Amino acid sequence: MVTIKPAHMAAISNRLTPQNHQKTSEECDDYNCVAWALSIDDDWYDHSGLPATTRPQGLDQSGTVAGYVAFFESRGFSVTNASAFVSTEDRIAVYGDAYGSFAHVARQVDGTNWASKLGGWEDIYHTSLDCLEGGDYGHVRVLMSRPHSCGWG
């Protein structure tokens, strides 16, 4: 199994180990986790409006979990309590810190894996949501789902 760099693992969470993730791409800064959660791999979606980023319609400037939840709602997602894989649904997990600031989003790939884009670093499949918790990404704050759409976006 190919894994990300040990320094990247340590920076993200002490729960991320070579046993619970697999690297699925090399490092690149063409896109981030928000775009990747929507299966977009050529844009960096961000609330800040900084150069080299895109603030898509529906994403406010707050940088909060609530702001990102509203953005994903504008893309057809709704809040759910279920994390179990359902083949007819697209499912995402929104991470944030204890103060309500957005940190990360992962998308469910299948019954075993979640996909994450780690900033400008690699893409990974991870076997659970909690393996990214406890470090820079905080904790899963909201689960969301929508009827499956071909191509996500």
Would you write up a description of this structure?
The protein is 14% helix and 25% strand. The protein has a seven-stranded antiparallel sheet with strand order 1-6-5-4-3-7-2. The radius of gyration is 14 Å and the shape is globular. The model has no long low-confidence stretch (mean pLDDT 92).
Entry keywords:
single chain, 153 residues, 3 helices
Share in β-strands: 15-25%
Tell me the radius of gyration: 14 Å
Apparent shape: globular
Strand tally is: 7
Please estimate the helix content.
Answer: 10-25%
Unreliable residue runs: none
Mean residue pLDDT: 92
Question: Can you list the strand order of the major beta sheet?
Answer: 1-6-5-4-3-7-2
The biggest beta sheet reads: 7 strands, antiparallel
Write the element-wise H/E pattern from the N-terminal end onward: HEHHEEEEEE
